[in-house]
Amino acid sequence: MGNTSPRLVSRLKRKRRIKKNIFGHQDRPRLSVFRTSKHIYAQIIDDTDRITLVSASTLDKEYSDNKVEGKKVEIAKAIGSLIGKRALDKGITKVVLDRNGFLYHGRIKALSDGAREAGLIF
To answer: How is domain 6-118 classified at the CATH fold level?
Structure first.
């Protein structure tokens, strides 16, 4: 790992600690969230079969066609509603949130609020 900033090391420690207790099953898959300074990614994963069921990000064509102008928090909420809509189309209603070591604040919280408003339960 080339970048060993204290923030990254702390996030990876939190990620390992959280990941021990979170596992996505077929009846309740895992909603994994990852963010960078420019983009945010979310995917719903079934860990038993090791497949991604649904994904959404700021790089998706559907998002770029209906682009949300505003702050990053508003964009994250739009991505949350997009993944919630896609999950409901696939028949997924309950998920487990995997925040990937990020603090439940700001964009991560906005994405989960958007997914809840779209109909996901977690």
So the answer is: Nucleotidyltransferase; domain 5 (3.30.420)
